[in-house]
Amino acid sequence: MLFFYAFLSLGYFALLLWMRSQWKGKQHVDSPLNQLSVTLIIPCRNEEKNVTGLIDCLAELTYSNLEIILVDDQSEDNTYDLISTRISGKDNFHLISNEGSGKKKAILSAIKKATGEIIMTTDADCKIHQSWVEEMVSGFSNPAIQLVAGPVLPEFDSDKFSFELIEWGSILLTTQVSFAQGSPFMCSAANLVYRKKAFEEVGGYEGNLDEPSGDDEFLLKKIIALFGSDSVRYQISDHNLVRTQPQTSFESLISQRSRWAGKWNQNNEFIHRLAAVSSALLQLIWVASIVLTVTGVFTLPELAIIWTTKALAEFLSLNRVLYSFDLKKPIWHFVLTSLIHPIFVLFVVSKSFTGKIKWKGREINRNPNFV
To answer: Which of 4, 107, 109, 363 fits a disulfide with 99 by CB distance 3.0 to 4.6 angstroms?
Structure first.
């Protein structure tokens, strides 16, 4: 058993060091393509706390050929009226109501009215740089590119521990490496751009419209299936980072991740299903090492070596990711995150199968299907 954990720890260390070597950080972007017409779509549900800052941020965008459509998704607060007031007199801003219910139907409602040949999406609680549109759209200087994804990180207090920030760092690392290896399997709709024609040619959200998440991941995979892996790009540049509001509690963070994780079995590719299962299994193995120590199979020094190897590998890789965005966190933040993360993942997996997930005032009931 100790040999197994020694082999696992060293393999995990080697894997993360290899992923670290693949991290490109910020890249050169091509010249802006202001001649491309762009429609930015932002679904909004119960966002009255965020819309004022959102509109102010959007009003500073410098791209000249930009249409902005905000979609009210049956908000139960004052979101609609606040947006309506804030965009009054702004000719390139439009407010519409969702023709259905849920984020995907909100985006579809906007795409029907969109005049842009390029579609961008972000979330109502996000902050973006004034040149964000130029930097993301620059990827379409190559006519073969159909979709461009970009990085997302939560806002954080530099003096406080932020599990969510470091966990997002692992998402960014995995995402960029998967794109670099020609087998991307995830991206974030909070920072996503694609050709409207490509969206239409792959059938949009057909086949997963009623799934509460996946307006990014499923679309990515459908575009790759039709146009090939060279048709998509993951781009990190000086000003294309999107900052999102952190979750207000650990419970809400688990609910968010459970909503994302619940779509694992809708992946058609066996390798992507296997990756999702393997990730959860790995966390279970880390937790099992503690149980094995309590039962006397491992000694405390042996347990310490196992977890130190794990934490060191994660620090070396994730610290590089955050550092490339000029974000610095002390090593103990990474160590504490390394200790918490396996338990966190197991809670997420459990809730994605058995729990009722409440998100933006709606309940999501999971009916697991393993086939």
So the answer is: 109
